[in-house]
Amino acid sequence: MGCAGSSQTKGDGALKKVRKPKPWKHPQPLTKSQLLQLREEFWDTAPHYGGRKEIWDALRAAAEADLSLAQAIVDSAGVIVQSADLTICYDERGAKYELPKYVLSEPTNLIRES
Q: What angle do CA 82, 90, 7 make, to 5 degrees?
């Protein structure tokens, strides 16, 4: 960004491949329904954090897809992945998008509802 010779493919020679986040633990144990509510609240308010709505939409689709489809989504949307687990990404204009782990995977302390 800003440098005529910069490119998302230079440096290590390849784009970062999307991967699942490492196991993580939420501060309080959550049920599946609480986790889904947190996710909905995040995605409903995400465009207010800045950036473009279409990039937020692509990131949501990628977060909810399997890894190979997620990779195709971020590639086609022009998303620059800084953290392979999608927690930090940029669009082609340099806007930063930060995703909390709870929208990308389930915590290790998820309470199974019966």
A: 75
pTM score of the predicted model: 0.83
CA dihedral 65, 69, 71, 73 (to 10 degrees): -80
At residue 1, does pLDDT exceed 60? no
Q: Are 86 and 104 in contact (CB under 8 A)?
A: yes
Those residues whose C-beta lies under 8 Å from the C-beta of residue 83, and which sit 6 or more positions away, are 16, 89
Judge residue 59's burial from the number of C-beta atoms within 10 Å of its C-beta, 0-12 exposed, 13-18 middle, 19 or more buried. buried
Which CATH number is 31-104 given?
1.20.225.20
CA distance 30 to 37: 10
Q: Are strands 80-81 and 30-31 parallel, antiparallel or unpaired?
A: unpaired
pLDDT of residue 7: 42
- Domain residue ranges of the chain, discontinuous segments joined by +: 31-104
Could you report the per-residue pLDDT of 47-85, keeping only the tens digit for each?
Answer: 998 999 999 999 999 999 999 999 999 999 999 999 999
